[in-house]
Amino acid sequence: MSKAHLRKKESTSSKISDVPAEVSPPPTTNTESLDDVWPEWNDGDVYREKWDSAKVPDDPKAAAKAPVSNLFFEDPEGKITLPPTLNVHYWRRPIEFLANMTPTVVENTMTFDLVTSNQHLLCSEVMRWIISEIYIIWKVFHNPEAPEHHGWKPWEHIYSLCKPGKGHVPHFNIYGKYLVRLFWMGCWRKILVDDSMPFDMNHNLLLPASSCRSELWPMLLAKALIKVMNTRTLSGDVNRNKMAQLSDEVGEFNFIHHLTGWIPEISPINYVCRRKTWEFLQGSIPEFMHKSPEKQQQKKSKRISSHSDHRSQRDMDKVKTKLVVCASFYPNQLRDDPFTYTKMADSSETLRRYNLCYSHSHIVLLTQTRTCSLEVPTQPPPEPPWKLIRKQKKKPVITDEPQFIPLPEPEEFIGVASPFIDQCVKSPPSPTTERVDKKQPPLEPIPEGSENEGREAQDPEATETDVNCETIVEEVEVPAEDKKKDDDAVSVDLPSSVIKEPIVKPILPEVWMELEDFPKCFCRLWVFHNPDTYPHQSQKSHLKCSYARGTYYFCVDSLHPSQILISFSGLLRWAGLDKFGKISVVAEQVKFASQARCPALLQAAPFHWKSRQCQQPIVTIETNCSKATILNLPSGRHVLSFHTYAELAYHVHLFSKTPFSFGDEETIMSLCTKESLRFCEMSKSIMRALSKLVISFHDRHGHKPQIRHSLEEAYSPNQGPLENWQAEKVFSLAVYHVLSDALGREMTPQERFAVMALTADPTLLSRARRPRFYAFCEELKTPATWIDRLPTKEEVNAAIVLQAAFKGHLVRDVLKHSRTGTMESLHTSPVLLEMWSKVECDMENNGFSLLRYMFELSDRETIVYPCQLDEWTKVVFTDYSVILPDKANSWILVFREVFFFTKETLLLPMVYSPVPYSRLHVINNDTGEELSKLITRVPPLLYQPNELGYTFVAEVLTPELPPIDARWTLRLIATREPLPQLSHELPLNTFAVQEFQDYYLPNINNIICGYTVKVTVPLLGTIHFQTSSRYVKIRLSILEKETVVASATGQGHVIIPVANFLPNEEVEEEEEEEPIAPSGAVEENQHTPPAQEDEIKALLDDSQDEEEESSTSGKSDCEDDHLPPPTKPPDYRYVVRAEVLYNSWDLNESQLAFAHLLSFKETQVYFPEDLTESTSDVSGSDEPIPETPKVTRKSEDSKKAVSSPTVSQEEMGLDLTKANYTLLVAVDTNEAESIMVKKDSERIEQIKAIKRAWEAAEPGRAAKAWQLRLNWLSQFYQNKDGEVPTPEPEIIEFEEGYSPIPPNAPNIPIEEMLSIVVPPLDYMPFISSLQVIDQLLPCPTRRDFTWSPLPRRKTDHPVFLDPEMEENQRKERLEKIQAYQLERDILVEERRQKAAIRRERMKAILMLYEKQQMAMVDGQQKFTDMQMHQNQKSNDTRKWLNNRIRRREDKNLDES
Question: Do 1064 and 1080 contact (CB within 8 A), yes or no?
Answer without folding.
Answer: no
